[in-house]
């Protein structure tokens, strides 16, 4: 079987990444990937049903991993004592975020592919999934902190969703603009201070 050819899978993946980087998803060619990998298009189709399946295979492990990381971090925060969360909101909410940024830089190529080269709405769909995770936990925390704000209509879950969506879009600017890790740390620290200050102002936390 083709999968027994030593190193071929890795070669195909590397050539696929380069093809998508150079030409984007629409213009990338499975024939060119096969040629550069020193194999045939039939060997590609044995592994991937089509070009989109190949692209998804390149990036989905990284996307799944970062969603799992975010869910686990926010679940730990949600499980904390409510008074502790309220009194130390900024400090506690920042504790898990360096690991999130570290993950992005560990899989920088994959996230770059997603942002620059992905077909259709794949990137926006990914951001929406992160936003939904964050919104669910944020609303739970804020309802415990200031339930009257939601009951009175002072703030609505839709607002939380919009703020969360804008935040994660802002985070991935570090990939879009090829920031160094040092630049990213400074930028994201500023971003988080800005958003944390806004939540504290609205909810007096």
Describe it for me?
With 205 residues, the chain is an all-alpha fold. The chain folds into two domains: 2-47, Orthogonal Bundle (Arc Repressor Mutant, subunit A); 59-203. The protein is built from 13 helices and no strands. The chain is elongated and about 65 Å long.
Feature tags:
Arc Repressor Mutant, subunit A; 2 domains; mainly alpha; 205 residues
Tell me the layout of helices and strands.
Elements: H1 8-27, H2 30-37, H3 41-47, H4 51-79, H5 82-87, H6 89-95, H7 97-106, H8 108-117, H9 122-145, H10 147-151, H11 157-171, H12 173-176, H13 181-203
Helix pairs in contact: 1-2, 1-4, 1-8, 4-7, 4-8, 4-9, 9-11, 11-13
